[in-house]
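Why do we bother with a discrete structure alphabet at all? Because it lets us treat a fold like text: something you can write down, compare, and reason about line by line. To make this less abstract, here is a complete entry for Transcriptional regulator. Read it the way you would read a sentence in a foreign language you are learning: slowly, and without expecting to understand everything at once.
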Amino acid sequence: MPNTASPQQSGIGAVRVYPDKTPVYYQGDAATRIFRVNSGVIMTFRLLEDSRRQITGFCTEGEFFGLSPDGEHMDGAVTVTSAGVQSVSISALETDADLRAQLLDHSWRKVEDAQNLMMTLTKSSSEARVAAFLVMLAERRKRRGAKQDENAIEVRLPMSRLDIADYLGLSRETVSRRLNDLQGLGLIALPDTHTANITEIDGLRRKAGTVVTG
């Protein structure tokens, strides 16, 4: 594991601050620890046999990553931004009931996220995929308890357009065009490269092909 991170504090496990674009672990490494994001954004990805990259997720504050069923990391993990990461020994699960409960809740949410990703990737419309991505980020923000106005939801996009493209199975140019299209429709505003303000969440959900509630 890279040693570029610096200790910040102690808790269940070591909390370290990793600079942006720093590997946390590599695909194929032994999975002896799990990780929790205390701040910043982590990207997980898988390198395919043809050298292509498939991004498998973006992890934000409070989320766990690095869980593996067979003792080996199937994905790699790298910081998108500077990130505080808590490293927890798998053996700690045997004695920490609260940690087990957190992981169980996280696992259910990861199953839900995986199902949503599969639904997103089966959408033939690139516009629907990008809209679904923004809706997912908005729902995650709500899940963390962030206060938000349904007509003015700020979504941070610290990842690059290429990262979003590799996650959604699109090209970088297509992602940029679809974001601009959604802005032209009045569903979002793009004040800068790394921010999307959702101004019409129900309309964005319709574009994504998801159920509008409320």
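What the structure line is telling us, in plain words: Residues 1-11 have pLDDT under 50 and may be disordered. The chain has two domains: 6-110, 124-208.
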